[in-house]
Amino acid sequence: MGVDKEKVESHADKKALIDIWKTTVQTQMHFNEMLQKVRFIGLTIVIGVMGAAAETLRIESPVQVNFLFLRDIHIAAIIQLFALLLWIGLIFLEIYFFGLLIGAVEYGEQIEKSCKMLEGGLTNRITLSVSKRKAQKLLFVFYAVPLGGGLYFLITLFTL
Q: Which residues, other chains included, contact 82 with Cβ-Cβ below 8 Å and sequence gap of 6+?
């Protein structure tokens, strides 16, 4: 549902449009908060699980287990694998909520472009400062670096 600039003429239409814009900005803030919570809580849990994997390396007589088709692997490898699966799950949550946020931002941009009072408003200014492409690159680094480090640690554990 786009907003047509020519249809926004009367005072009542403008007031209704501003109310829709306010709700859209609140929705953007909600999705952004959800993303922050997913990142903060998820990263905390994953780091804790990775720390547990590293801590099991200090055991003098390591626990060797049979896991799926692998025989006699260190328990740290299984814990690390679990951490990486959690991290991958967080990536999927990020993709979902990021898509919702982008949809709300694009709708907010449409509203701001359709109303002279809102032209150059908050949504458009933020989009000019941080493009969708720039945000995607930053998120890629945020998720890829720990994933790469975790994979390296897991591969190293298989050589023990």
A: 49
Amino acid at 145: V
Contacts of 18 (CB under 8 A, 6+ apart): 115, 117, 118
113-144, pLDDT tens digit by residue? 877 766 667 777 777 788 888 888 988 998 99
12 by Cβ neighbours in 10 Å (0-12 / 13-18 / 19+) ranks as exposed
Kindly state the helix (H) or strand (E) to which residue 71 belongs, with its residue range.
strand 70-74
Q: In whole angstroms, give the CA distance from residue 2 to residue 59.
A: 62
Tokens, residue 41: 């809580």
Q: Which amino acid type is present at position 40?
A: F
| Whole-angstrom distance, CA of residue 87 vs CA of residue 81 | 10
pTM: 0.75
pLDDT of the residue at 51: 93
Q: How confident is the model at residue 104 (pLDDT cuts 50, 70, 90)?
A: very high
User: Helices then strands (H, E): number in the chain?
Assistant: 4, 2
